[in-house]
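Practice problem: predict the structure.
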Amino acid sequence: MSRTRSDAGSGQGIHRRSVLAATGAVALSAGAGLALRTGESRAAAAGEGTQAAAAASSRQAPAAPLAPYTRGTTLAGVATPRGGSGYRRLGDGPGWQRVVRSELAAPKAGRAGRRTALAAFVQLTDLHIIDAQHPLRLEYLRAADVHAWRPHEALTVQGAIALVERINALRGAPVTGAPLHFAMTTGDNTDNNARSELEWFLKVMSGGRITPNTGDPRRYEGVQNSGLKQYWQPDAALRDTDKQAGFPRLDGFLKAAIREVQSPGLNLPWYSTVGNHDSLPMGCYASHGDSYLTDLAVGGRKLMSVTAAEAKQLRTLIKKARDPQGVRYHDFLKSHARSMRPVTPDERRAPFTPAEYIEAHLDPAYRGAGPAGHGYSSANLDAGTQYYAFRISDDVIGISLDTTDPGGHYEGSIGSAQMRWLDRTLRENKDSYAVVFSHHTSRTMTNTRPDPARPGERRHDGQAVLALLGSHRNVLAWVNGHVHKNVVTPHSAPGGRSFWEISTASHVDYPQLARIVELADNKDGTISLFTTLVESAAPHRTDFSDLSQTGLAALYRELSLNAPGASTTLGGAPKDRNTELVLKKG
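Answer:
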């Protein structure tokens, strides 16, 4: 591995090139960042239409490394439940300590004084920006499964903006003081494959005004003013199921939830990785060509209630992957046509195709801090792919995979063409460390049904991807989401090769976290990966009378804690949260 000299006189040195890139002092092609070297560019772009996307520089960097800090991270404090039963309020609580993990290498004394920062970035995952009034949502499955609908789903935009505000306020990397090079969102950026959700997501990330409302511009039309007891009716006196469990009555909640909000956009470059909810309607159906479902999506009817038996049957079809093409779902909706309620039609609720997803990222209106396309390029459009590689710093490349199976179902896999491209990209960049990004985890890549567009191509599961990554000495980490839980897993392979899999919790389920990842060379034959979790900028404590943008973001977190079936274990064990993950150098 090639190494750049660390800044003289710094115990935790930062590469001079990284600092210069962050301060804009390095002239770079297109003004976007550090491009892959010539051979690397060919490796990234030649195979199956990906690009060597420009790498990200950070916000204005300090002239010298910052001291380690904790403020604004979960090391300093975490929103903590108060009370043991019923509706629980949140308040300030103690932080989570950092845990050193040595399964893959023994940490050596004195490393803190020797280490040099290689790169630092922020991971966001599973934002699930939700159009809560969309006619094709599956809220009615709550009749059989309390997890099928969350009482806070109308506030995903406000919650995501508060997360952007937190990231913008970070001083840099908490341990090394390195500038943050970029942010990566690892899929399920949208929830229901709707154009409205895609527009809101892109504005949250790049900045702009958002009105999180579709249909009637004057009022909310959905399950939360339906009068149905199985949903929280915040503005009504109705004693619904959630109010019986302690949920409050909040007059004006729905009016506030659809009011225009403002996102500052991230103040550092960001990249995008695709998830199953971004590619497939409801995150599980390969039914883009179904005109009936599209007509329902943009039309004036919405199903809000079915019997528990019917809900259980449909839920089983989805979980067992017995209807990946959505044929029986189509028939289910037709059989309930007379039960649907009138809503205001809206063309913005139409599903988007994979090509439209890339085109939206390429739209200059959503460039924000860049780079153009946020990793995607016209080469992806030409080849019909959603994976790419980019340079993070002199010594590190990033690789974004597409693990969604176009054949349907919410679990993942990748095709042979992408596997060959991944192997070639790692091989041709063997002198650089690599961080791999995807939506699915290794354990949730179990769905290998054929891609309808490539019926003869073999699909590969998570074990095959682990084996491929383990065959390359330069892989340091595989960073992903999907499981809505913090899990950090060591992986070792023959020949001393090893890497860490870092799975991060969602921002739609409690405790709603993002993660800072730092890479550092300890100058003693080991590498350390530091993971530090952060919450949104919303205050821990809520005030039911505060329905401002900030007040709603705080309420978003507290409601997620109290959602029926919500688990407080999704934050993970201490070893899965704030960590130092030690590796042997390849």
